[in-house]
């Protein structure tokens, strides 16, 4: 009998709390809510190195950042790993197709997929005129090639006037069918049309949104423009220094100073999420029409979150929940996921590195012993089992370079440039409104977590720890030296 199929739905920059089933007060996601209602969702899912390249390295290799070596954002480094998610599934007899974002190097590196229909969004390093032609997005990116065929040689995603890291928002200027979110769905559905019916498939539908530009079609902007929106989280520990110095810069790391522009950023972000959700709905309906919905495991997740003006911050890479916490759903019937209670929520601590071993476990094939990730399938029957007690995360980010430890209960943060520390009790304070680093009641726990980080970092080549203390100010490149 043919093995079941796998659909991995990957999004970019989607916060773990911006979903209807996660009880967000404003965002509506009926199709993702459906996936969660028939599966298991994880409310302590994280991206240990929360930016596009490093997060995807964890996803595709099953490795922690200490082993895939990407500790921040840097383009142009060759992806060369002995085991990849698609490569191992291919060995197990799966036809592996990716549609959408890969963000690897070189751009047409397939990482074990049999075929890739590529759209990486706007990549600065691949758009400069000095880039070799074969590595230029104007040549290598399938969506850009298609858009210019459809709309004319000068058509581009920049025609809205928006930048790919900006909080500026406005509706998509072309017909909705030309939007990159629709394109990923269209090409994924076309794969279902032309797939080999006798062979199981692994389809990765890899969407760009809600990563900026915030440019959903007008219908979705209208949904949120007429609503009163919950303002961003603001605690008792932030300073306005960065906001005052950069709050009028369109692509700043703090978001806008103007309250109307903050609201516009929220409207644009939420509009992109609901647009994405509806396009995922199209893909789910196509699975039904092609008769493969009941034979397909669906795994939904994101590479990292978006700060969205929480704590006067924007984008990702910093150690706060808006940036590091991600959605993760395993959805299927009880034949695909034996022992499942539909609608289960697991509080176990999981990470992107766990996706690859989970899928390999699902198809009953060999899991390389070099992987750092763990299969999440045991959590189907035992959702409150602890897959791990603590997770170490980090990001090379200049003056904001950071390391952190998170548990289902709390979080310890260390900024490696300055030595600044923070501590949050997440169970009581999920929005991180109160930094408890100086609270006498918390000192024993803070010492435990600090000591854990000291031991975690003691053999790192950067010199963050000597085994007895944390050492700030060490050089911290985005790719670990050997």
TrEMBL record:
Signal sequence extent: none
Enzyme Commission no: 3.1.6.1
A GO molecular-function annotation: arylsulfatase activity
Annotated keywords: Hydrolase, Metal-binding
Pfam families: Sulfatase (PF00884)
Sulfatase N-terminal domain segment(s): 4-362
Keyword Hydrolase set for record: yes
Domain of life: Bacteria
Protein name: Arylsulfatase
Species, as recorded: Blautia hansenii
